[in-house]
Amino acid sequence: MTHGVTINDVAREAGVSISTVSRIINGTAFVADDKRRAVETAMQRLGFQPNYLARTLITGRSMTVGVIAEDIVSPFYADVIRGVEHALLDTPYQPVLNSGHWSTQYETRAIDTLIYRKVDALLLLGSTLGDDTLRDVAGRVPLILFGRRVPGLESHCLTLDQRGAALNATRHLIELGHRRIVHLHGPPGQQDAQERRAGYRDALTGNGLPLHPELELQGDFLEQSAAQALTHLLDARVPFTAVFAGNDQMAAGARLALHRRGLRVPDDVSLIGFDDLPASAFTIPPLTTVRQPTYQIGQALARHALHVLAGEPSSLPDFDLTLILRESTRPLR
């Protein structure tokens, strides 16, 4: 990097005014594409690096968007984050990532850290915090929520019909003749997990089938929890013919538990997941699951944040959840 290069040098090299260079660096106004390219080329050639701390002090903006997921290494959240990142690529804003780790303590710390670092907006991908706390956060920084609907913040909340999608997935198994269906559900208190569990129960009661508490197994949306829970059920010799897992990762754990007992999917046990992670189409057999458009969701959240920061009207779109039929389910024989 060349030291001592100033904004004046960049303007002279690009053949534009100093104010044009400033607008491009700060993202404060529209600049024609040819001028933007000339300035970016000049900055690269001269090795100019903007002083972002000084810019933050002057403009009151850091040009960053905080993103907190329950777990940023989760395949589900990773694809949402990929959508956020791509939506911000050609803008002055950069994402800053952190994890909440399914913990109110760690999520609160992550929020406080990002606000302290002056992020301009905050995206929460799921949250363990109460509604009052989230409303308080929204009073400190523009807040966009995915997977939570908070009274008073509805216009900045993106939620999907998790309950209806879970009902459809369970009903598919019932239509195939299954009556004793295991449900591996997510963490207690997690909104998506609660709604999917409710949808599972809706499908059973709506088809005149009894609820069996012993078939509702606690998981944490990770593979190991599902493998352990289903192994314990198999050890107890509780009969079942199908499994509806609360997400694809738990479906993978369930598949492992069945495999270790010599049970084949779908010949012996039908299996459905939720999310349609990229790898789910390539398991053996390919997994029947509910598709969530994770990448498009991430893009929509980021674009909404950009509109909010620009003071422009914006609404979050609705997304459909689709049951994707593959080879992991079959009629009961």
From TrEMBL:
Pfam families: LacI, Peripla_BP_3
Domain spans labelled HTH lacI-type: 5-59
SMART domains in alphabetical order: HTH_LACI
Keywords: DNA-binding, Repressor, Transcription, Transcription regulation
InterPro entries: HTH_LacI (IPR000843), LacI/GalR-like_sensor (IPR046335), Lambda_DNA-bd_dom_sf (IPR010982), Peripla_BP_I (IPR028082)
Source species, domain of life: Bacteria
Gene Ontology molecular function: any one: transcription cis-regulatory region binding
Name recorded for this polypeptide: Substrate-binding domain-containing protein
Organism: Deinococcus xianganensis
